[in-house]
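Field: sequence (string)
Field: structure_tokens (string)

Example rows 1 and 2, in order.
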Amino acid sequence: QVQLVESGGGLVLAGDSLRLSCSASGRTFSIHDMAWFRQAPGYEREFLAVISYSGSDTNVADSVRGRFTISKDKAKNTLYLEMNSLRPEDTALYYCAASDYYSLSPQTYAYRFWGQGTQVTVSS
């Protein structure tokens, strides 16, 4: 089995930057893509970004492109999300996810493994 644990969330001011991390453990050989999603109260879970196993391919949602950057440290089995110019509307629970096949999909159903989430709150 694969376990994913997010960290790095917190309370920040609008315009600030934050880096989220996701540590993968267990049978990490099962992982292909890794992705970030977020969910705010009353909203559906929203795709943010995905990166391939090798790290050579990425896809970032239009809504955050230019502000958010996805990356990974393969040796450490760690996924990152660099968030810049944060806005109050970025406030949400941020989830790390991993798939067991290659697709670079923005859909939640493509991801087999999920973390518990880390809260990001942006105040104005």
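Row 2 begins here:
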Amino acid sequence: QVQLVESGGGLVQAGGSLRLSCAASGGTFGIANMGWFRQAPGKEREFVAQVRWSGGSTTYADSLMGRFTISRDNAKNTVHLQMNNLEPEDTAIYYCAARRVTVVQYDIWGQGTQVTVSS
């Protein structure tokens, strides 16, 4: 089974940028989409962005489109999330996830990486 490991989180000032990475070990055979989600303390997990592994088409949460960019490198089995003009409201644990072609929901998850944006 695919294992996902996130990296790139940290502390950044408002207006700054971070680039998150998600490395998929074990290959990506059978993966339809990979995406990013986030969860702030006391709030539900929310969708951030996703990319189709084949073709590379992307979708974003409406509120984040224009500031965040998702990309993938099929050869390296890696997906990235470039986050620009960060706001304190972006503070959350960011999770990488993958959806298999045979299921409807995302069912493979990484451990998450903390992003903290100071004002």
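free_text_note (row 2): The radius of gyration is 14 Å.
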